[in-house]
Amino acid sequence: MKLSRQGRIVGVFVAGMLALAACGSNNTSGSEPSASGSAGASTACASGTLNGEGSTAQQNAIEEVISSFQDACPDATVNYNPTGSGAGIKQFNAGQVDFGGSDSPLKTQAVDGVVEADAAKQRCGGNEAWDLPMVAGPLALAYNLSGVDKLVLTPDLIAKIFLGQITTWNDPAIAAVNSGTSLPSTAIKVFYRSDESGTTENFEKYLAATAPSVWTATPSKAWAGKAGEGREKSAGVAEGVKSTPGGIGYMEWSYAVDNQLGIAQVDNGGGPVELTGESAGKFIAVAQPSGQGNDLRLTLNYATKEPGVYPIVLVTYEIVCSKGLAADKTALLKAFLAHFVSTDVQSGLNDLQYAPLPAEVQTKVQAAVQAIS
Question: How would you classify the pairing of strands 129-143 and 247-252?
Protein backbone atom coordinates (compact mmCIF):
# COMPACT_ATOMS: atom_id res chain seq x y z
CA MET A 1 0.00 0.00 0.00
CA LYS A 2 1.39 3.38 -0.96
CA LEU A 3 0.54 5.80 1.80
CA SER A 4 0.82 8.83 -0.46
CA ARG A 5 -1.92 7.36 -2.66
CA GLN A 6 -4.02 6.45 0.33
CA GLY A 7 -3.74 9.97 1.65
CA ARG A 8 -5.15 11.41 -1.56
CA ILE A 9 -8.25 9.17 -1.62
CA VAL A 10 -8.87 9.38 2.11
CA GLY A 11 -8.39 13.13 2.05
CA VAL A 12 -11.03 13.52 -0.63
CA PHE A 13 -13.43 11.35 1.31
CA VAL A 14 -12.79 12.60 4.85
CA ALA A 15 -15.83 14.88 4.98
CA GLY A 16 -18.11 11.98 4.20
CA MET A 17 -16.43 9.80 6.77
CA LEU A 18 -17.00 12.29 9.55
CA ALA A 19 -20.72 11.88 9.06
CA LEU A 20 -20.40 8.10 9.16
CA ALA A 21 -18.54 7.49 12.39
CA ALA A 22 -21.26 5.31 13.83
CA CYS A 23 -22.30 3.44 10.70
CA GLY A 24 -20.19 0.28 10.86
CA SER A 25 -21.09 -1.52 14.05
CA ASN A 26 -24.76 -0.60 13.97
CA ASN A 27 -25.55 -2.65 10.87
CA THR A 28 -26.12 -6.37 11.03
CA SER A 29 -24.42 -8.59 8.50
CA GLY A 30 -27.66 -9.65 6.87
CA SER A 31 -29.30 -6.25 6.64
CA GLU A 32 -29.52 -3.91 3.68
CA PRO A 33 -26.86 -1.22 3.93
CA SER A 34 -28.11 2.16 5.03
CA ALA A 35 -27.04 5.15 2.97
CA SER A 36 -25.96 8.40 4.51
CA GLY A 37 -25.12 11.81 3.07
CA SER A 38 -25.70 13.10 -0.44
CA ALA A 39 -25.21 11.21 -3.69
CA GLY A 40 -21.77 12.74 -4.02
CA ALA A 41 -20.53 11.74 -0.55
CA SER A 42 -22.75 8.83 0.39
CA THR A 43 -21.51 5.56 1.75
CA ALA A 44 -23.08 2.58 3.45
CA CYS A 45 -21.81 -0.01 5.87
CA ALA A 46 -22.34 -3.70 6.35
CA SER A 47 -20.19 -6.20 8.21
CA GLY A 48 -18.42 -9.28 6.95
CA THR A 49 -15.81 -10.22 4.36
CA LEU A 50 -15.93 -9.69 0.60
CA ASN A 51 -13.47 -11.32 -1.79
CA GLY A 52 -12.64 -10.18 -5.32
CA GLU A 53 -10.02 -11.08 -7.91
CA GLY A 54 -8.90 -10.04 -11.36
CA SER A 55 -7.63 -6.99 -13.21
CA THR A 56 -4.21 -5.65 -12.29
CA ALA A 57 -4.97 -2.44 -14.21
CA GLN A 58 -7.33 -1.34 -11.44
CA GLN A 59 -5.09 -2.56 -8.61
CA ASN A 60 -3.84 0.84 -7.48
CA ALA A 61 -7.36 2.26 -7.59
CA ILE A 62 -9.17 -0.56 -5.84
CA GLU A 63 -6.57 -0.84 -3.08
CA GLU A 64 -7.14 2.78 -2.14
CA VAL A 65 -10.92 2.48 -2.41
CA ILE A 66 -10.82 -0.58 -0.14
CA SER A 67 -8.73 1.39 2.35
CA SER A 68 -11.12 4.35 2.47
CA PHE A 69 -14.17 2.04 2.64
CA GLN A 70 -12.74 0.08 5.55
CA ASP A 71 -11.85 3.31 7.34
CA ALA A 72 -15.50 4.36 7.05
CA CYS A 73 -16.84 0.87 7.83
CA PRO A 74 -14.49 -0.85 10.32
CA ASP A 75 -16.63 -4.00 10.55
CA ALA A 76 -16.12 -4.71 6.83
CA THR A 77 -13.17 -6.48 5.20
CA VAL A 78 -12.63 -6.43 1.43
CA ASN A 79 -9.88 -8.54 -0.12
CA TYR A 80 -8.75 -8.17 -3.73
CA ASN A 81 -6.27 -10.47 -5.46
CA PRO A 82 -4.76 -8.85 -8.61
CA THR A 83 -4.20 -11.94 -10.76
CA GLY A 84 -5.35 -10.58 -14.14
CA SER A 85 -8.71 -10.28 -15.86
CA GLY A 86 -8.74 -13.81 -17.26
CA ALA A 87 -8.14 -15.34 -13.84
CA GLY A 88 -10.67 -13.01 -12.24
CA ILE A 89 -13.49 -14.11 -14.55
CA LYS A 90 -12.57 -17.79 -14.14
CA GLN A 91 -12.53 -17.52 -10.35
CA PHE A 92 -15.82 -15.61 -10.30
CA ASN A 93 -17.51 -18.13 -12.58
CA ALA A 94 -16.17 -20.95 -10.40
CA GLY A 95 -17.77 -19.37 -7.32
CA GLN A 96 -14.42 -18.77 -5.63
CA VAL A 97 -14.85 -15.00 -5.24
CA ASP A 98 -17.77 -12.62 -4.72
CA PHE A 99 -16.88 -10.32 -7.62
CA GLY A 100 -14.44 -10.36 -10.51
CA GLY A 101 -12.46 -7.48 -11.95
CA SER A 102 -12.07 -7.52 -15.72
CA ASP A 103 -10.78 -5.04 -18.29
CA SER A 104 -13.25 -6.38 -20.82
CA PRO A 105 -16.89 -7.39 -20.28
CA LEU A 106 -18.05 -10.99 -20.14
CA LYS A 107 -17.96 -12.51 -23.60
CA THR A 108 -21.29 -13.56 -25.11
CA GLN A 109 -19.64 -15.68 -27.82
CA ALA A 110 -17.85 -18.97 -27.22
CA VAL A 111 -14.08 -18.84 -26.76
CA ASP A 112 -12.39 -22.22 -26.41
CA GLY A 113 -15.82 -23.73 -25.95
CA VAL A 114 -16.83 -21.42 -23.09
CA VAL A 115 -19.33 -18.55 -23.17
CA GLU A 116 -18.28 -16.41 -20.21
CA ALA A 117 -21.68 -14.75 -19.81
CA ASP A 118 -23.44 -18.13 -19.69
CA ALA A 119 -20.97 -19.52 -17.16
CA ALA A 120 -21.44 -16.42 -15.01
CA LYS A 121 -25.22 -16.80 -15.14
CA GLN A 122 -24.91 -20.39 -13.96
CA ARG A 123 -22.60 -19.28 -11.13
CA CYS A 124 -25.25 -16.71 -10.12
CA GLY A 125 -27.90 -19.39 -9.69
CA GLY A 126 -29.54 -18.73 -13.04
CA ASN A 127 -29.58 -14.96 -12.52
CA GLU A 128 -27.86 -12.55 -14.88
CA ALA A 129 -24.34 -11.37 -14.16
CA TRP A 130 -23.75 -7.67 -14.73
CA ASP A 131 -20.71 -5.83 -16.05
CA LEU A 132 -20.43 -2.62 -14.02
CA PRO A 133 -17.82 -0.11 -15.29
CA MET A 134 -16.03 1.23 -12.24
CA VAL A 135 -12.53 2.35 -13.25
CA ALA A 136 -11.43 4.13 -16.42
CA GLY A 137 -7.77 3.29 -16.82
CA PRO A 138 -5.74 4.93 -19.58
CA LEU A 139 -3.03 2.71 -21.03
CA ALA A 140 0.36 4.34 -21.30
CA LEU A 141 2.92 3.50 -23.95
CA ALA A 142 5.78 3.77 -21.50
CA TYR A 143 9.37 3.93 -22.72
CA ASN A 144 12.92 4.11 -21.40
CA LEU A 145 14.94 6.29 -23.73
CA SER A 146 17.58 8.57 -22.25
CA GLY A 147 17.43 12.16 -23.51
CA VAL A 148 14.02 11.78 -25.19
CA ASP A 149 11.47 13.73 -23.19
CA LYS A 150 8.82 13.85 -25.90
CA LEU A 151 7.90 10.99 -28.20
CA VAL A 152 4.99 10.87 -30.64
CA LEU A 153 3.70 7.58 -32.03
CA THR A 154 0.99 6.81 -34.58
CA PRO A 155 -1.11 3.61 -34.71
CA ASP A 156 0.95 2.14 -37.57
CA LEU A 157 4.20 2.85 -35.73
CA ILE A 158 2.89 1.31 -32.52
CA ALA A 159 1.72 -1.83 -34.32
CA LYS A 160 5.01 -2.23 -36.20
CA ILE A 161 7.05 -1.71 -33.03
CA PHE A 162 5.11 -4.35 -31.12
CA LEU A 163 5.31 -6.76 -34.07
CA GLY A 164 9.07 -6.34 -34.31
CA GLN A 165 8.91 -4.71 -37.75
CA ILE A 166 10.59 -1.52 -36.48
CA THR A 167 13.60 -2.38 -34.35
CA THR A 168 15.57 0.82 -33.63
CA TRP A 169 14.47 4.12 -32.17
CA ASN A 170 16.01 6.22 -34.94
CA ASP A 171 14.08 4.38 -37.65
CA PRO A 172 13.11 6.89 -40.37
CA ALA A 173 9.40 6.18 -39.84
CA ILE A 174 9.63 7.22 -36.16
CA ALA A 175 11.84 10.20 -37.00
CA ALA A 176 9.31 11.43 -39.57
CA VAL A 177 6.68 12.14 -36.87
CA ASN A 178 9.20 13.41 -34.31
CA SER A 179 10.76 16.32 -36.17
CA GLY A 180 13.29 18.18 -34.04
CA THR A 181 13.82 15.27 -31.64
CA SER A 182 17.22 13.58 -31.57
CA LEU A 183 16.45 9.87 -31.58
CA PRO A 184 19.25 7.43 -30.65
CA SER A 185 20.09 4.25 -32.55
CA THR A 186 19.21 2.22 -29.45
CA ALA A 187 17.53 -1.10 -30.15
CA ILE A 188 13.83 -1.24 -29.29
CA LYS A 189 13.05 -3.79 -26.57
CA VAL A 190 9.35 -4.68 -26.39
CA PHE A 191 7.70 -5.90 -23.18
CA TYR A 192 4.22 -7.39 -23.03
CA ARG A 193 1.94 -9.21 -20.59
CA SER A 194 2.72 -12.93 -20.38
CA ASP A 195 -0.45 -13.69 -18.37
CA GLU A 196 -3.99 -13.54 -19.74
CA SER A 197 -4.94 -9.91 -19.43
CA GLY A 198 -7.77 -7.55 -20.25
CA THR A 199 -5.08 -4.89 -20.59
CA THR A 200 -3.62 -6.89 -23.47
CA GLU A 201 -7.04 -7.39 -25.05
CA ASN A 202 -7.84 -3.68 -24.93
CA PHE A 203 -4.45 -2.75 -26.36
CA GLU A 204 -4.94 -5.23 -29.18
CA LYS A 205 -8.44 -3.88 -29.80
CA TYR A 206 -6.88 -0.44 -30.23
CA LEU A 207 -4.31 -1.76 -32.70
CA ALA A 208 -6.90 -3.76 -34.66
CA ALA A 209 -9.17 -0.71 -34.92
CA THR A 210 -6.51 1.83 -35.87
CA ALA A 211 -3.88 -0.16 -37.81
CA PRO A 212 -5.87 -3.06 -39.32
CA SER A 213 -3.52 -3.58 -42.26
CA VAL A 214 -0.60 -4.08 -39.85
CA TRP A 215 -2.22 -5.69 -36.81
CA THR A 216 -4.28 -8.55 -38.23
CA ALA A 217 -4.60 -10.78 -35.15
CA THR A 218 -7.94 -11.12 -33.40
CA PRO A 219 -7.78 -9.29 -30.05
CA SER A 220 -7.68 -11.60 -27.06
CA LYS A 221 -6.44 -11.72 -23.48
CA ALA A 222 -3.38 -13.68 -24.68
CA TRP A 223 -0.68 -11.59 -26.37
CA ALA A 224 -0.59 -12.10 -30.14
CA GLY A 225 2.55 -10.10 -30.92
CA LYS A 226 5.65 -11.62 -32.48
CA ALA A 227 8.39 -9.69 -30.73
CA GLY A 228 9.62 -8.90 -27.28
CA GLU A 229 9.67 -10.40 -23.81
CA GLY A 230 6.70 -11.37 -21.70
CA ARG A 231 6.41 -10.29 -18.09
CA GLU A 232 3.74 -11.18 -15.58
CA LYS A 233 1.18 -8.51 -14.65
CA SER A 234 1.42 -4.76 -15.10
CA ALA A 235 4.13 -4.47 -12.46
CA GLY A 236 6.31 -6.95 -14.34
CA VAL A 237 6.00 -5.08 -17.64
CA ALA A 238 6.81 -1.78 -15.91
CA GLU A 239 9.86 -3.29 -14.23
CA GLY A 240 11.06 -4.71 -17.55
CA VAL A 241 10.84 -1.34 -19.29
CA LYS A 242 12.43 0.51 -16.38
CA SER A 243 15.43 -1.82 -16.23
CA THR A 244 16.05 -1.95 -20.01
CA PRO A 245 17.40 0.98 -22.04
CA GLY A 246 15.32 1.21 -25.21
CA GLY A 247 12.42 -0.58 -23.54
CA ILE A 248 8.75 0.04 -24.34
CA GLY A 249 5.58 -1.57 -23.02
CA TYR A 250 1.88 -1.03 -22.60
CA MET A 251 0.66 -0.62 -19.04
CA GLU A 252 -1.89 1.14 -16.90
CA TRP A 253 -0.97 4.81 -16.49
CA SER A 254 -0.07 4.76 -12.80
CA TYR A 255 2.59 2.10 -13.32
CA ALA A 256 4.34 4.35 -15.83
CA VAL A 257 4.17 7.31 -13.44
CA ASP A 258 5.28 5.31 -10.41
CA ASN A 259 8.30 4.02 -12.31
CA GLN A 260 9.17 7.47 -13.74
CA LEU A 261 9.00 6.26 -17.33
CA GLY A 262 8.53 8.36 -20.43
CA ILE A 263 4.99 8.29 -21.85
CA ALA A 264 4.45 8.61 -25.58
CA GLN A 265 1.89 10.98 -27.05
CA VAL A 266 -0.48 9.27 -29.46
CA ASP A 267 -1.58 10.70 -32.81
CA ASN A 268 -4.65 8.92 -34.20
CA GLY A 269 -4.90 11.46 -37.01
CA GLY A 270 -6.15 14.49 -35.10
CA GLY A 271 -2.75 15.56 -33.79
CA PRO A 272 -0.54 14.30 -30.93
CA VAL A 273 -2.40 13.91 -27.63
CA GLU A 274 -0.70 13.82 -24.25
CA LEU A 275 -2.10 11.36 -21.73
CA THR A 276 -3.95 13.25 -18.99
CA GLY A 277 -7.03 12.57 -16.91
CA GLU A 278 -8.94 15.10 -19.01
CA SER A 279 -7.91 13.68 -22.40
CA ALA A 280 -8.72 10.12 -21.26
CA GLY A 281 -12.03 11.18 -19.72
CA LYS A 282 -13.14 12.63 -23.07
CA PHE A 283 -12.67 9.19 -24.60
CA ILE A 284 -14.96 7.51 -22.06
CA ALA A 285 -17.58 10.25 -22.40
CA VAL A 286 -18.23 9.30 -26.04
CA ALA A 287 -18.39 5.53 -25.40
CA GLN A 288 -21.65 3.86 -26.42
CA PRO A 289 -23.62 1.49 -24.15
CA SER A 290 -23.93 -2.02 -25.58
CA GLY A 291 -25.49 -4.01 -22.73
CA GLN A 292 -29.11 -4.51 -21.72
CA GLY A 293 -30.69 -2.99 -18.63
CA ASN A 294 -28.21 -2.86 -15.76
CA ASP A 295 -25.55 -4.75 -17.69
CA LEU A 296 -23.51 -1.63 -18.45
CA ARG A 297 -20.88 -2.82 -20.90
CA LEU A 298 -19.54 -0.11 -23.19
CA THR A 299 -18.39 0.00 -26.81
CA LEU A 300 -15.23 2.10 -27.10
CA ASN A 301 -14.25 3.99 -30.26
CA TYR A 302 -10.49 3.40 -30.36
CA ALA A 303 -10.21 4.83 -33.87
CA THR A 304 -11.47 8.30 -32.93
CA LYS A 305 -9.61 11.18 -34.57
CA GLU A 306 -11.18 13.80 -32.31
CA PRO A 307 -8.51 16.37 -31.34
CA GLY A 308 -7.54 16.28 -27.68
CA VAL A 309 -8.91 12.78 -27.05
CA TYR A 310 -6.44 10.17 -25.79
CA PRO A 311 -7.56 6.96 -27.51
CA ILE A 312 -5.99 4.07 -25.57
CA VAL A 313 -8.21 3.71 -22.54
CA LEU A 314 -9.62 0.59 -20.95
CA VAL A 315 -12.60 0.27 -18.66
CA THR A 316 -12.37 -2.12 -15.73
CA TYR A 317 -15.68 -3.76 -14.90
CA GLU A 318 -16.66 -5.33 -11.62
CA ILE A 319 -18.45 -8.56 -12.59
CA VAL A 320 -21.28 -9.20 -10.12
CA CYS A 321 -24.37 -11.33 -9.70
CA SER A 322 -27.57 -9.34 -10.12
CA LYS A 323 -29.07 -11.83 -7.65
CA GLY A 324 -27.99 -15.06 -6.05
CA LEU A 325 -25.48 -14.17 -3.35
CA ALA A 326 -26.25 -14.73 0.33
CA ALA A 327 -27.99 -11.78 2.01
CA ASP A 328 -24.92 -10.74 4.02
CA LYS A 329 -22.68 -10.84 0.95
CA THR A 330 -25.23 -8.87 -1.08
CA ALA A 331 -25.41 -6.16 1.59
CA LEU A 332 -21.65 -5.83 1.76
CA LEU A 333 -21.20 -5.93 -2.03
CA LYS A 334 -23.72 -3.11 -2.49
CA ALA A 335 -22.10 -1.05 0.26
CA PHE A 336 -18.63 -1.39 -1.22
CA LEU A 337 -19.66 -0.72 -4.82
CA ALA A 338 -21.78 2.28 -3.80
CA HIS A 339 -18.72 3.73 -2.09
CA PHE A 340 -16.56 2.94 -5.13
CA VAL A 341 -18.87 4.79 -7.56
CA SER A 342 -19.60 7.77 -5.29
CA THR A 343 -18.64 11.15 -6.74
CA ASP A 344 -16.00 11.93 -4.11
CA VAL A 345 -14.20 8.62 -4.54
CA GLN A 346 -14.35 8.76 -8.34
CA SER A 347 -12.95 12.30 -8.25
CA GLY A 348 -10.08 11.14 -6.06
CA LEU A 349 -9.08 8.51 -8.61
CA ASN A 350 -7.81 11.27 -10.89
CA ASP A 351 -4.87 11.76 -8.51
CA LEU A 352 -4.00 8.09 -8.93
CA GLN A 353 -3.70 8.40 -12.74
CA TYR A 354 -7.19 7.13 -13.51
CA ALA A 355 -9.98 9.00 -15.30
CA PRO A 356 -13.14 9.42 -13.18
CA LEU A 357 -16.28 8.01 -14.76
CA PRO A 358 -18.26 10.68 -16.64
CA ALA A 359 -21.33 11.80 -14.70
CA GLU A 360 -23.81 10.11 -17.05
CA VAL A 361 -22.03 6.75 -16.72
CA GLN A 362 -21.60 7.16 -12.97
CA THR A 363 -25.34 7.75 -12.49
CA LYS A 364 -26.20 4.53 -14.35
CA VAL A 365 -23.71 2.51 -12.31
CA GLN A 366 -25.10 3.91 -9.06
CA ALA A 367 -28.60 2.83 -10.09
CA ALA A 368 -27.38 -0.64 -11.07
CA VAL A 369 -25.62 -1.11 -7.73
CA GLN A 370 -28.83 -0.30 -5.86
CA ALA A 371 -30.71 -2.80 -8.06
CA ILE A 372 -28.56 -5.74 -6.91
CA SER A 373 -30.72 -8.00 -4.74
Answer: antiparallel
Which of 13, 46, 8 lies closest to 372, judged by CA? 46
> DSSP alpha helices (H): ranges in the chain?
3-18, 23-26, 59-72, 85-93, 116-123, 155-162, 172-176, 198-210, 233-242, 253-258, 277-285, 327-340, 343-349, 359-371
Topology at the third CATH level for domain 139-282: D-Maltodextrin-Binding Protein; domain 2 (3.40.190)
- Distance of CA 89 to CAs 79, 117, 157, 340, Å? 16, 10, 32, 20
Residue type, 257: V
Contact yes or no for 233/56 (Cβ under 8 A) = yes
Distance, in Å, from the CA atom of 193 to the CA atom of 76, rounded to the nearest integer, reads 33
The full 3-state SS of 173-239, as one line of letters, equals HHHHCCCCCCCCCCECEEEEECCCCHHHHHHHHHHHHHCCCCCCCCCCCCCCCCCCEEECHHHHHHH
Architecture of the domain delimited by 3-137+316-371: 3-Layer(aba) Sandwich (3.40)
* 168: DSSP letter: B
Comparing 3-137+316-371 with 139-282, is the CATH topology the same? yes
What distance in Å separates the CA atoms of residue 312 and residue 108, rounded to the nearest whole number?
A: 23
Integer angstrom CA distances of residue 286 from 214, 270, 357: 26, 16, 12
For 18-73, the pLDDT digits (tens) are 333 333 333 433 334 433 333 334 568 999 999 999 998 899 899 999 999 999 99
> The pTM is what?
0.77
Dist. CA 62–CA 111, nearest whole Å: 28
- Encode pLDDT of 269-321 as tens digits: 999 999 998 899 899 888 888 999 999 999 999 999 999 999 999 999 999 99
Give yes or no for a contact between 108 and 117, defined as CB atoms under 8 angstroms apart: yes
The burial class, CB within 10 Å (0-12 / 13-18 / 19+), for 81 is middle
Surface-to-core class of residue 184, CB atoms within 10 Å of its CB (0-12 exposed, 13-18 middle, 19+ buried): middle
Domain residue limits, the chain: 3-137+316-371, 139-282
